[in-house]
């Protein structure tokens, strides 16, 4: 596997780049070419201003967006921009948006007002909007009409074109809008930065074929496309040689990984192959659709020690009647059976879930079924959402939308139960000595560090920053609700 950075450097110092009058047709070479042009431009601007050029990325939504943002940051860094979190001092700002629920959209429109005022003070500021929200025609229409100060708008299918789009904007001078309605291929080998040097997300598939009736994701992220296993493994090997010990395999539905490949491969098989990569010590994955979670995967989780004993298994509702309307394609009984098989195979497995409250037509009885599932499974933690109507999805036109006050009451009851379960599950580990991956110096006390157990629980304990990135044994001495205080166990 080539080292992307090295390949970019080689390309930019070669005659190919110097002599090219027009950009290469093939990817990723084409983007390296634009990174090269941007690098010259950044350099000229730096000389004129007598300072570096700064870029800031704001990410909304899920792990897929977080990974896309790292890819864009990789391009910006290769082009010579310096990353910053301070929006006031930036030269380029990106909003990577989410549209899974209405409030995510509202927040972006709110931020646009603020960006307008920033741009008035700093007219050279470049503003880029991308992500799921931009895949909706009505959003792009509104930005074109009412937010003329935005510079670049692109979607989820052409993130790889980021360098080219920035170049188009600075060389063309007007708003650049480039939205694709689907992806024609997966572009490999572009640069990506990492928030943490010791852990990283790795995309294994893009898009979703499930069309759950409330969900906008299949419309904005397109049909499911799996990455070739050799590309995934090459990336994991490269990350491992770069010091990464924990990886998170990412897909909208990892359990259906590989079904669309010319030579199909199961997700369990992919996990086995990834497990063989030396240097990788922990493997996580997200998200699992219950309908596609095979016994083969359960067995693989039980057999592979590097696979974390944590599974995020969204249930969405405990009522078989609502699950059918949601087009989830499993019943309450099938879900509970899956949970029993998981707990039998991996006894200390930590389970987390997503639940939607107030789906159209949800009655008190339906809601009580959800409460029953939460009680029976006793999740380690739950992400609870109030149903949000997404235009264009089948659920948006279903009758019997549930009144707000009823939803609020159910939501509060659910939160209380979820809290009880989490507290019970968290407390179980008191006194144990567990491996903890140290992630950062504690926010509140610089003599402490914060790390994660393999079940994803946080532990704070006294130690120095040199442990960051290492997996060390920690005794859990005090449970504080949803996290632990511990002490480092020194090996004899
Ligand atoms: N309303 C509320 N929650 C939603 N989710 C997806 N679509 C909606 C919606 N329209 C939740 C689901 C999913 C999580 C990522 O977001 O629970 O698992
Ligand atoms: Fe949305 Fe369902 Fe696909 Fe998840 S599986 S992204 S909830 S359509």
Topology:
Elements: H1 4-12, H2 15-19, H3 29-49, E1 54-59, H4 63-79, E2 82-83, E3 92-97, H5 102-121, E4 126-131, H6 137-146, E5 152-154, H7 162-172, E6 176-178, E7 199-203, E8 205-206, H8 217-221, E9 225-226, H9 229-241, E10 246-250, H10 267-275, E11 282-286, H11 295-303, E12 310-312, H12 320-325, H13 332-345, E13 350-357, H14 364-377, E14 381-386, H15 404-427, E15 433-441, E16 448-452, E17 458-462, E18 471-480, E19 483-488
Parallel strand pairs: 1-2, 1-3, 3-4, 4-5, 5-6, 7-10, 10-11, 12-13, 13-14, 17-19
Antiparallel strand pairs: 8-9, 15-16, 15-18, 16-17, 18-19
The structure holds 5'-deoxyadenosine (5AD) and iron/sulfur cluster.
The site of iron/sulfur cluster (SF4) has 10 residues, from helix 8.
- What is the C-alpha radius of gyration, as a whole number of Å? 24 Å
- Helix amount: 25-40%
From the N-terminal CA to the C-terminal CA, the straight-line distance is 39 Å
Largest sheet entry: 6 strands, parallel
Q: Structural class of the helix and strand makeup?
A: alpha/beta
Number of helices: 15
Which residues sit in consecutive blocks of at least 5 with pLDDT less than 50? none
Give the overall silhouette: globular
Enumerate the distinct ligands: 5'-deoxyadenosine, iron/sulfur cluster
Strand content: 15-25%
Spatial order of strands in the largest sheet = 2-1-3-4-5-6
Mean pLDDT: 94
Strand count: 19
Give a brief rundown of this model.
Helix content is 38%, strand content 20%. The protein is an alpha/beta fold. The model has no long low-confidence stretch (mean pLDDT 94).
């Amino acid at each position: 596997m080539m080292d992307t950075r090295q390949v970019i450097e080689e390309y930019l110092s070669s005659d190919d780049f110097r002599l090219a009058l027009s950009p290469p047709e093939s990817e990723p070479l084409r983007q390296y070419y634009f990174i090269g042009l941007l690098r010259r431009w950044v350099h000229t601007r730096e000389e004129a201003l007598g300072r570096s050029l700064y870029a800031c990325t704001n990410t909304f939504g899920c792990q897929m967006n977080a990974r896309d943002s790292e890819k864009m940051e990789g391009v910006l860094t290769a082009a010579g921009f310096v990353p910053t979190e301070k929006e006031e001092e930036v030269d380029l700002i990106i909003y990577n948006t989410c549209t899974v629920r209405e409030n995510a959209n509202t927040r972006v429109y709110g931020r646009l007002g603020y960006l307008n005022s920033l741009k008035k003070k700093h007219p050279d500021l470049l503003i880029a909007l991308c992500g799921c929200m931009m895949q909706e025609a009505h959003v792009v229409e509104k930005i074109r009409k009412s937010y003329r100060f935005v510079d670049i708008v692109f979607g989820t299918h052409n993130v790889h074109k980021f360098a080219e789009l920035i170049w188009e904007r600075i060389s063309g001078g007007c708003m650049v809008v480039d939205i694709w309605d689907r992806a024609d291929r997966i572009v490999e080998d572009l640069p990506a930065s990492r928030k943490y040097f010791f852990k990283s997300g790795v995309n294994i598939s893009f898009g979703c074929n499930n069309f759950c009736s409330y969900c906008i994701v299949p419309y904005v992220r397109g049909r499911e496309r799996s990455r070739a296993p050799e590309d995934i493994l090459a990336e994991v090997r490269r990350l491992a040689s770069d010091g990464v010990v924990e990886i998170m395999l990412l897909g909208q539905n990892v359990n259906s990984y590989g079904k669309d490949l010319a030579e199909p491969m199961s997700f369990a098989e992919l996990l086995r192959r990834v497990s063989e990569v030396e240097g990788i010590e922990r493997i996580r994955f997200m998200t699992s659709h219950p309908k596609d979670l095979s016994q083969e995967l359960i067995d693989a989780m039980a057999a592979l020690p590097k696979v974390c004993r944590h599974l995020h298994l969204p249930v969405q509702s405990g009522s078989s009647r609502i699950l059918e309307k949601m087009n989830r394609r499993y019943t309450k009984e099938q879900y509970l059976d899956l949970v029993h098989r998981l707990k039998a195979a991996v006894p200390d497995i930590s389970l987390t879930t997503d639940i939607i409250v107030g789906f159209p037509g949800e009655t008190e009885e339906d809601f009580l079924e959800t409460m029953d599932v939460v009680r029976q499974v006793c999740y380690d933690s739950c992400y609870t959402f109030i149903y949000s109507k997404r235009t264009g999805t089948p659920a948006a036109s279903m009758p019997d939308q549930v009144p707000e006050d009823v939803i609020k009451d159910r939501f509060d009851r659910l939160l209380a139960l979820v809290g009880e379960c989490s507290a019970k599950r968290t407390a179980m580990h008191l006194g144990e000595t567990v491996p903890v991956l140290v992630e950062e110096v504690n926010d509140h006390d610089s003599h402490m560090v914060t790390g994660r157990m393999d079940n994803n629980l946080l532990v704070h304990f006294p130690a120095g920053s040199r442990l960051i990135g290492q997996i060390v044994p920690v005794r859990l001495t005090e449970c504080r609700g949803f996290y632990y205080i511990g002490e480092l166990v020194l090996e004899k």
